[in-house]
Design a protein that fits this description.
It is a single chain. The chain is mainly β. It has a domain at 20-66 and 85-106 and 139-187: Porin. The chain is 10% helix and 67% strand. It is built from 1 helix and 8 strands, in the order αββββββββ. An 8-stranded antiparallel beta barrel has the order 1-2-3-4-5-6-7-8. A hairpin with a 1-residue loop joins strand 3 (59-74) and strand 4. The two termini are 37 Å apart. Residues 37-41 have low confidence and may be disordered.
Amino acid sequence: MRFLLALIFLGVLLPVFADAQVQFGIGARTSLFGYNRDELDGTRVFWGGHVRVRAFKYFAGELSAQYREDTFGFRNGDIKLETFPVQLSGIVYPLAMIPVTPYFVGGIGWYRLKATITGDLDLPYVFGQGSVIITETAPHIGVGVEAFIGDHFSIGGDVRLVFLDFRTDLINYKYSAVLTNIAGTFYF
């Protein structure tokens, strides 16, 4: 029954999709993460890529994945923090598809943090060498701009506020992070 309803729904929407101006794009991105520069290595940036589908002049969907590694000292040891965010976002272009257009972005992200500890951090239950992996989902919102250079290439950037809330037996950390992205996209 669900399959039949989905087929009917798709059949009703098919004429709308057939008339849509759809652009499929892939691209590379780099990002800076807003944090306390005294605690993490500020020379590191996120590197990654994204897939973007623009449709109906006003809307787009995006899937992005990035990676970053930080190393910082804590007491008599070191902590290597590897961060891997994957974000699924909806984008609204209020001025439609024009050569330079602002947009609003919002969505959900999956964030994987791996902390590898080396040395003595002088903390209870934490000594020697080991790793802990924490994963969390978190929403994000933001604003940005995309500028087309020709018919198939765009550059752009946005600022996204990410609402992280890590809760484990060892960590209870709530953080509103700022992720600043710069990207280039090739549209087919």
